[in-house]
Amino acid sequence: MSGRIIDRTGGIFIAIVLLAAVLIPAANLLLPPGHPLHVPDYMIPLLGKYLCYALLAVAIDLVWGYCGVLSLGHGAFFALGGYAMGMYLMRQIGPRGVYGNPVLPDFMVFLNYKELPWFWQGFDIFPYAMLMVVLVPGALAFVFGWFAFRSRVTGVYLSIITQAMTFALMLAFFRNDMGFGGNNGLTDFKDILGFPVQAHGTRIVLFMLSALALLAGYLVCRALVTSKYGKVLVAVRDTESRTRFLGYRVENYKLLAWTLSAMIAGVAGALYVPQVGIINPSEFAPSQSIEMVIWVAVGGRGTLVGAALGAVLVNAGKTWFTGLMPEAWLFALGALFVVVTLFMPKGVLGLWAQLTRRLKRAPSAVPTPTPAE
Amino acid sequence: MAAPLPEGPKTYEIKSPGVLSLEAELGILSPPEVVADPMALTSALLYLDNITVSFDGFRALNALSLVIGEAEMRAIIGPNGAGKTTMMDVITGKTRPNAGTALFAGVNDLTRLGEAEIANLGIGRKFQTPTVFDMHTVEDNILLALREDRRAFRNIRWGRTPVERERIEALLERVRLKDHRHRQAAELSHGQKQWLEIGMLLAQEPRLLLVDEPAAGMTDQETADTAVLLREIAKTRAVVVVEHDMTFVRDLDVKVTVLHEGSVLAEGPLDQVSADERVIEVYLGR
Fold it and tell me: Which residues of chain A have a CB within 8 Å of the CB of B142?
């Protein structure tokens, strides 16, 4: 495992993301629509969505790849961050809603709410909403992790309770009287910080912000896993009891990574919502969270870069495939997971490392730790 | 990486807090005086009294009593199922006894503390099968074991302090893994892993070392070397060795405790113990 914060793979990754953040909007704005390299307008929010997924995958890889915690509930943290952003966007609609109520969002008027519920207070203030984007998923993760890690729930059992957590949240958010818009969720957003959400310029800025958030998330995780803390984390992943006998409080190490991961997932969700224009309880669906884990597995677990790569690859594949034959996508996804597990245990990134090694006939510098479970 | 060090025996003359204990082990310095806690209930370092552990009715430990003094080495022998590993589990907090007293340094109740707390009190454990961190380099294995702040936030830092470098250097020299420092621990041979784990144990600077079958899977030469190493370590700290290999126990040349069915059957020098009829009956199987 390379000890530097920015190793070769990481350097290439950062360069690609930075280039994409500049060149894709440039190719959209500067090249005429007929040009072969022109990026059509509809592609910008789509690619921005992929970048949010990539950031989410990096967050999952931090806990799965380096800490051995297979979370099947990260969709919950992603959706909570998304809801926090959605609540801000709902408050920005103001009197422009169908019912024209200056304070209450449309669904509340429809459901005969007399006043704004207490937990909606303050969401009209952008910094407060952004704070909630990280605090709410972080707090949930902290409480969940506190109990789970302290009672030493590991492996499959932990995965199942993360799944139960997101499922419970999905059922709760589906209820109309929860005050989050029920199964319709939050939508019909008008503007963000005064800029219209639907406008092309806003979308380009959101795309670039997503790219920057991905880089920041990557760098934070990478810095963490190359520190001594990160070495302990890998030790916990591989030989938990040994680490404990060395005097490390394993639960605290896990809790820190887990909470941070949830916060990053929240940021990814917050950037995702204005780009897709809606957030609803289906984001909490267990199948969504399982799909996220597949992205990481496809890209290469325990590499961070691989997770981001996997998220973009699988989602690009999904967009292409669902256009071709929508009903077959789930089968294709299942097949992909089986193939990756059987033939590419280190994912696409591991395969690439193997190929370059074979070509060079020399040990590769690409760090590809073997998954422990 | 680390600063070049002079070759030969001078290597141990580096002055840093971490290396002092090594010097002490080599007799260059006298061991630091351990001041007994005025609250201590016993002068023994490890005091086990009447420890009973039962798993679903099976008594793994049956009123076991054992006392280990400061800087004492003790060999524990006994047939399979005698409770040797369970005893180590009780001392390190992995298993909670159903009854009995377990005190460390006369004040710390081992039956109430968690594994991490017990490790930080100064009890180090080496497992039967070498358990090192396979994914990490030999150096990093030692780094993670060094006696330092174990809190999560304090460990978000990069690089190594000069003290850490010196200590790692000295310990690698000690366990003869200097040439393998950058290799992944997974690539080491079985014997090398055993030594790496002993190195990690030393890095913790424990007051009591629990060593479970250190000679398992070692060549004769390695076994003899290990005995010398353990005897050297035992000059400054207490060592409890669980071992099957009689030649090895003879090499250690210390007081022997024989366990049988979860309690102490005999205690004394190896020759005296191995002449005991009951020991011959249960252990040597004649």
Answer: none
